[in-house]
Write a structure and sequence with these properties.
One of its GO terms (biological process) is positive regulation of response to oxidative stress. It is a multi-pass membrane protein. It comes from Helianthus annuus (Common sunflower). It catalyses: L-cysteinyl-[protein] + hexadecanoyl-CoA = S-hexadecanoyl-L-cysteinyl-[protein] + CoA. This protein is mostly helical. Among the domains are: 66 residues, no CATH class; 206 residues, no CATH class. Helix 1 runs parallel beside helix 9. A hairpin with a 4-residue loop joins strand 2 and strand 3. Bound molecules: zinc ion (2 copies). One zinc ion binds next to loops.
């Protein structure tokens, strides 16, 4: 039973850390342990470490720490690329040494030995394509071509010069401070790829997420089938019912079968739990990026829209409170002539701030040209089409 509880704890702790790290800021976790863990993981842990270094080594230690942090987080470096290779390589190696000797099995054909290598190989190829492809670097030679791709919407993009590159910033582009270059249709800088995700490589990035999701599901299901095959080949159910006298029903057999699997194949079960959690995360990431692709929005633009909408909301609120103040001043001057409003009526009356003044705050994304057109733009980027400048979008 000890191993069983260890596995349950492993699964729960992994899930807790991953959920806290990725979703700890969500409003539903406000004031909970998950939010505190998120703060610790994203900021607190480093701060404690910095204080420890300062205490032991003094200011020279903290300076060294800041320099290391600068080179690891603010400069291009292959640390996360190496980590990706280590995780994928390590997991696949563990599967090969722990599970390949049971293939072919009752439920798995021998060809899975080769298709699994092929599946990991395709994943690696997508990783190379995303990492080393040009995301759409803008320079003095091609800036005029990129300027013709998208019009300025004058909401989140207006004509501006990049203060570092000293060239006009095309609409939807951004200067990546890590790579030190302007990138067309900038999505985000991906540390795992050590590259920007932009106009030309968003397709590879989204394919990478989708393929790795399938890869994890394939791994989980394949190991599950291998274990089911072992159960069948070793006639575990027969032994349990005939020799141990356990009732031949799902309810009474399940705990014994699970216990047998965990004690005999704990490496495989650990890998299955890990792959299942990663596949869940990847499905979330893929879903998010796919929804961005089909609405022709970039990650960078979602932040810009958030800023714009919250600013618009504040302007609206300020307007409403000015009007409310004006109205109450008017009321005050007319108080003597106006009949007094019922106490209850004024209690239930909505405040001016809550009243809708009819002006709706909307996100007017002029780059959204419909589901299929947007998807086509990801698959076949505008900049790689023959008549580069002929694909100007109409501002509406
Ligand atoms: Zn720039
Ligand atoms: Zn970058």
């Amino acid at each position: 039973m000890g191993v069983q509880w260890l596995l349950v704890c492993h699964g729960l702790v992994t899930l807790l850390v991953v959920v806290s790290f990725l979703c700890g800021q969500w409003p539903i976790f406000q004031g909970t342990f998950i939010q505190r863990l998120h703060t610790f993981l994203t900021f607190g842990a480093f701060d404690y470490f910095r204080r420890f270094v300062e205490f032991v080594f003094g200011s020279r230690g903290t300076n060294a720490l800041y320099i290391t942090q600068y080179y690891c987080c603010d400069r291009p470096n292959p640390i996360l690329q190496a980590l990706y290779l280590a995780i994928v390589g390590g997991t696949f190696y563990l599967i090969v040494i722990s599970t390949f000797n049971y293939i072919p099995s009752y439920y798995m054909g021998g060809y899975h030995r080769y298709t699994s290598v092929l599946a990991v190989g395709v994943g690696f190829l997508l990783f190379l394509l995303t990492s080393f492809s040009d995301p759409g670097t803008i320079n003095a030679e091609n800036v005029s071509q990129y300027l013709s791709l998208y019009p300025y919407d004058n909401i989140i993009y207006s004509e501006k010069e990049c203060s570092t590159c000293k060239i006009l910033k095309p609409a939807r582009s951004k200067h990546c401070s890590i790579c030190d270059r302007c990138v067309a249709r900038f999505d985000h800088h991906c540390g795992w790829m050590n590259n920007c995700i932009g106009e030309k490589n968003t397709l590879y990035f989204v394919m990478f997420l989708l393929w790795h999701f399938f890869l994890c599901v394939y791994g989980t299901v394949a190991i599950g089938l291998v274990l089911a095959g072992r159960l069948k080949e070793l006639e575990v159910v027969y032994i349990l019912t005939a020799y141990y006298g356990i009732e031949n029903s799902y309810r009474s057999l399940a705990p014994h079968v699970v216990q047998w699997l965990i004690s005999s194949y704990n490496t495989q079960i650990l890998i299955m739990v890990f792959l299942a959690i990663v596949s869940l995360l990847l499905s979330g990431f893929f879903g998010y990026h796919f929804s961005l692709c089909v609405s022709n929005t970039t990650t960078n633009e979602t932040f810009k829209w958030e800023d714009y909408l919250s600013w618009q909301r504040k302007v609206k609120e300020a307007k409403a409170s000015t009007e409310a103040l004006k109205a109450s001043l008017d009321d005050l001057s007319q108080e003597t002539t106006k009949p007094q409003q019922s106490k209850w009526k004024s209690f239930f009356k909505r405040s001016k701030l809550e009243q809708d003044d009819g002006v709706e705050i909307i996100k007017n994304n002029i780059y959204d040209r419909g589901f299929f057109q947007n998807l086509y733009e990801i698959i076949y980027p505008l900049s790689s089409r023959h008549s580069f400048s002929a694909h100007k979008l109409k501002t509406g």
